Amino acid sequence: MKKGNKMFTIGVIGAGHVGLVTAACLAKLGHYVLCADNDEDKIKKLKKLVMPFYEPGLEEIVEHQYKKGNLLFTDSVKEVSEKCDVIFIAVGTPSTPDGSADLSYVENVTVEIARALCAFKERKKENIYRLIVEKSTVPVLTGQWVKKTFQLIGPTGIEFDIAANPEFLREGSAIKDFLEPDRVVVGVENERARKIFEHIYSKIKAPIVFTDVKSAELIKHASNCFLALKISYINAISQICERVGADIEKVAEGMGYDRRIGKDFLKAGIGWGGSCFPKDVAAFIKLAEEIGYPFNLLKEAQQINKQQRLLVIKKAKELLWNLKGKKISILGLSFKPNTDDIRESPAIEIIEMLLKEGSLIKSYDPKAMDNMRRIFPDIEYCNDAYECVKDTSLLILLTEWEEFRKLDFEKIKRLMESPNIIDGRNYLDKEKLKSIGFNYRGIGRN
Ligand code: UDX
Questions:
Q1: Rounded distance between C-alpha atoms, residue 18 and residue 292, angstroms
Q2: Bridge partners for 95 per DSSP
C-alpha cells in the first residue's frame, strides 16, 4: 500500500452501502484507502469493478480511484489493521428480534483488529498508533465498549484513539451526501484525533461539528428518528385531510415555507422504509427503554407508519370490493427511487397483504426486481410498466421512479381491465388522470 506524501492511509471495514461509498469518496478526496469485506466473492468482483449494489455515480468513482491506485480492496481485516493508520468500522448493525441493534459484527471486527495489531506489534518494534472510527450507526455508549474491548486485548506499546463519525448518506444520493454534506459530525476524545479528522475532511466545504464520542453517537440516532417522526407527522395530517376533504400536498406546501419547519421530509405516502429508519427507530426506542426513558413519541411514529401500509389495502377494497382473484399491478418495489434496495420496503408488506387477500400480482421496477424475486418468487415480474398494467383492474404506485411520471396514461387506461389507480406517493398528476377517466386515490388527497 503506497503512502507517498500522504499523511496516513485509511482503512474501511465493510463494503456495504455505507462502507463502499465512504471508501470511494475518501479516495476521491485524495486519501489512500484500503477497503475490506469478509465476503470474498464481493471483494473479487470489486477488483473486477463489479459493484455489489446500485448507487448512482459510485461505479465511476470506484473505477477511477482503483485505476489510480488510491482505492484498493482486500478480504483481510488483518491487512487493514497492519497497513492503515485510521480504520473506519462500517459493518452492519442489524435489528435483533426485540428491536435493539445487534452489535456483534462491530465487536468481532474490533477484536479482530486488536488481535491483528498484537501480532503485528510483536514483529514490528516501532510505536504504532491507530485511530478507530465508528462509521456504522451504533447506539450511544458503543464507543466505550469498543475502547474497553481494545484495551483488554491490545498489548502495551500500541497507542489508539476511538472516534465516532456517523454517516448521513441517503441511498440514491449517497455520493453527493458524502461530498457535499450539510455538516460532518465527529466525536473525538482528544486533540490528536481531531487534527486527523480536520485533515481527512479538509476538502469538504461544510461545518464540522466536533464533539465527544457519546454526543456524536446520539446525533445520528436523534437525527434519523426526528426525520422518521417528521414523515409520520405529515402522514398523520394526511389522515385528517382524507377525513375532511383537504389536500395534504397543499397543507405540506403551506407548512414547508416556514423555515422553522422546512419543506424536506414532508412527503405523505405509504410511510418510511429502508435499511435505516425502521432499524434506527426500533433501536433508539429500545435503548431509551433500557436507560429508563419510555420513548412513546417514537412508538407512535412506528404505529402511524404501519397504518399507512394498511391504508393501501383499505383503498384497494374501496375500489374493487373483493380483492380475491383480482389482477393488481404494482409499479415500484424498491423502498425509494434510484436504488435497487428493498430492505423494509413498504412494497413487501403491501404485496404480502394483497397475496393474503388472494389477489394476483404483476409487478415492475426499473432496478429492484432481482432482489424482490428472492422474497416473492411466484408473483409476475414484467419488462416494463405497460406489460405490467395489462389486463389488471388496479394499478398501485409504490415507488416514485421518474419514468413512472412520464408514462402514457391514455395507453395505460386502454391496457387495463378497469381504470383504477392508487398513488401511494402522491406522485402522479391527479387532475390529468381524473380527466382521462381514472378512479384516482392518493394519500390524503382524493
Ligand atoms: C436515511 C437518512 O436520510 C440518512 O441520513 C441516513 O444516513 C440513512 O437513512 P435513506 O434510508 O437512504 O436515508 O432514505 P431517505 O431518503 O431518508 O428515505 C427514507 C424513507 O422515508 C423512504 O422509504 C422514503 O420513501 C421515506 N420518505 C422520505 C417519505 O415517505 N417521505 C419523505 O418526505 C421523505
A1: 31
A2: 101
Residue range of the domain that includes 390? 224-441
Ligand 1 pocket (Cβ < 6 Å) reads 167-171, 224, 227, 231, 265-267, 269, 272-274, 276-277, 335-336
Place of cell 389522515: 239
Find the 144 Cα to ligand 1 centroid distance in Å: 29
Same domain, 199 and 230: no
Positions of the chain with pLDDT lower than 70, given as ranges:
1-6
Q: What is the mean pLDDT of the chain?
A: 95
Calculate how far, in angstroms, residue 275's C-alpha sits from the geometric centre of ligand 1. 9
DSSP string, 185-237: EEE-SSHHHHHHHHHHTTT--S-EEEE-HHHHHHHHHHHHHHHHHHHHHHHHH
**Res 2: pLDDT:** 52
Q: Are residues 257 and 322 in the same domain?
A: yes
**Please, is 406 exposed, middle or buried when counting C-beta atoms within 10 Å of its C-beta (0-12, 13-18, 19+)?**
exposed
Torsional sign, CA 325, 331, 333, 336: negative
If asked whether residues 179 and 230 sit together in one domain, one would say no
Instruction: Say if residue 236 is in the same domain as residue 186.
Output: no
End-to-end CA distance of the chain: 60
- Residue 360: predicted pLDDT: 98
Last residue of a domain, one of 165, 181, 211: 211
Structural domains counted in the chain: 2
